[in-house]
Amino acid sequence: MTTIAKSRTAPAGRAPDSARGRILFTFTVSQSLIFVAGLARYLRTRGWDVGIASAGGPELERMGAEGFPTFVVPFTRTSGADLAALRRLRSVLRAFRPDIVHASTPKAGTLTMLTSVGLPARRIYTMRGLPLETATGPARALMWLAEFVSCTLAHRALCVSQSLRYRALELRIASARKLTVLGRGSGQGVDCDRFDPDRATDATRVAIRGRLGIPDDAFVFGFVGRFARDKGIRELHAAWAQQVEQDVTSHLVLVGRSDERQDVSAVMAGLQALPRVHIQPHSTDMPGLYCSFDAVVLPTYREGLSNVLLEAGAMGLPAVSAAVTGCTDVVADGETGRLVPARDPNGLAVAMQQYAGDPELARRHGAAARERVIRDFRQEHVWRMIESIYVRQMDMAPRAGRRFRSLPQYEAVELQTSVTDRETTGLRGAFRDQGGSSLRVVYIAGCGRSGSTFLDLVLGNHPEVTSVGELSKHLSDDWSRGRRCSCGARSEDCPFWSEVRERWAAAIGGPAVTSYADLETRFNRVRDWPKLLRQRRHPSREFVAYSTYTAALYEAIGEVSGQRIVVDSSKIPIRAFALGMMSGIDLRLIHLVRDPRGIAWSHIRRYREKHERGQDGGAGSTPTWRIVTEWTTRNVQTTMVRRRMDADASMLLRYEDLVSDPTAALQSIGSVMSCDMSSVSTGLANGGEVNVGHIPAGNRLRMSRTLKLRPDLEWVSHLPRGDARLISVLCGRPMRRYGYVQ
User: Fold this and answer.
1) CB of 523 closer than 8 Å to CB of 543
2) Measured between alpha carbons, how far is 299 from 320 in angstroms, rounded to an integer?
3) In the prediction, which pLDDT does 529 show?
4) 508-518 pLDDT, tens digit each
5) H/E element holding 550?
6) pTM exceeds 0.90
7) Does position 555 have pLDDT exceeding 60, yes or no?
8) Would strands 465-467 and 295-298 be described as parallel, antiparallel, or unpaired?
9) Treating both helix axes as pointing N-terminal to C-terminal, what angle do 359-376 and 307-314 enclose, rounded to 10 degrees?
């Protein structure tokens, strides 16, 4: 096994030879490494340094042979060697010095989280299933405690499926804020190129069936998994006994091995005694075995996110599955397969008979299953989503032991038409958590010319989202009077904004609308940070009024648009901080960054265009030092805001990543916004016409009807060398942090 020597010169938490960061995966047993083997290889190609720790086994040795740092830790499923495992794990963490520790499985999760507390590494725990669902007595209590400890100590707890998250919430293992699901589910994804029915030839199908003694025209059900009680072997036995009475042609193939922890040898003997049952050991050529099936059957009691159902779906096979945790996320009943009640052999037999009697229905459902898997569970998509979590955790890493703390918010207060009409004590509200707010505001923060308008337009094409552009600028400019809204009308004549203003005025009063811009300027400038921070403990009358009026404005926008998510690309970090303290607003923050050299060239290019048209007014281009100052200040402030938010309510997004891989970027954004962005990414990739909405303030792009994706790398050859050197000197450290320089 590999041992990593500790460097005396490397900063805490970061290895000197690690370009993006170090990640340590921990598992209880080496067989579980199938969950991260592909991800580890992908991360290595992306510049991450990946280490793996688990109990010894051939799987761990294979990863070591591929060049990954591997560590043997004496994890066991019993409690006998826990102290030795803790000591060994502690030495591994000190030697490898990871930036991120990512644990899976209950025992490894608990010990890893306990051991890494107090170290600078970020802690992530992935819940891949809940064995306690089928446990009883003291064992169930211990399993619950292990999950509770792992989730509590983790900075981020990932559930591999939505149904698993719901079950964990029902069992009160963790809070809704702590548990996160990436996309539609994020076990390890499916290699849809390997599991492709078009790659399996008829000769392979015939050869496998011939070896098993199955006729070519027979309908074959396949079961893949452990031969254990939890997998529903008893129910499968009873259902097949009914099936052979109704159907004299179908066959059942069982692929797997016995589980020594659950003795079902009597049941297996009974199954083997039934007609047309074939038992095979687990094979490395699973696509070949799947191609010999016509449907899969999985009467399991519980799953995390069933890999068998995903692989079978990728092979174009329908599934007959129990409607339990981890299966309902994969199988759409009546579309990609059939869901039956758990522990119901009669229902299982009926569903199997339906497919055996109608092979055409099985083929239709199988085709739909493959389409669903490719859309939602493709391996590459899952890897990108997981990597986005790592990037976000690296950015959120606290310094000097600093801890996350959610932004507090005010209790709702009565809407006022004038701040002076009421006493200060009547306006103040106590802080409380507003996690259940109905209106969600997605705020884009960062430096100017970072692509915020582009991102605003893209997000606005989701059916549940409305984009309003730089709302703060729109209000401060007297509702952008004289400018044109992106709909084509002048802002003061735009029907959308006219109705928003009417509803807003009806809610808070005409005088308040008129004075709002002046009120906003008291909390939107950089010099207002100390004053705004004081509002957390001692909210002033003006701030409570400002927060109340602002929440009412977003409510009016939501009512007029009929959509529950509002995107505001005002970019000002201090405004995001203020929004986070307002009741009635569920804030989600996107920290958008762009290479400062690209921003500088954008300023220079814009000036030259105006100069050529004689529209520069005699003014020179913005000095590079001022651009650098704004870029640094905006990004530092936005990072500060993000560190005070929940980890799953904000994200860092590079403009370059957005334009180079919009699908992956939108998947990450969708996880922060809590909505599926697949329809937007598909439309963007096809280059179709976009909905520009009603954006009165922003750059010229808001008037476009189509968006073209192209990395803007013109600065590489056009930015003056002196400006490029100045930027590299002044912004070198943050540029390395964001991955723009090595």
Assistant:
1) yes
2) 8
3) 87
4) 876 666 677 77
5) helix 541-561
6) no
7) yes
8) unpaired
9) 110
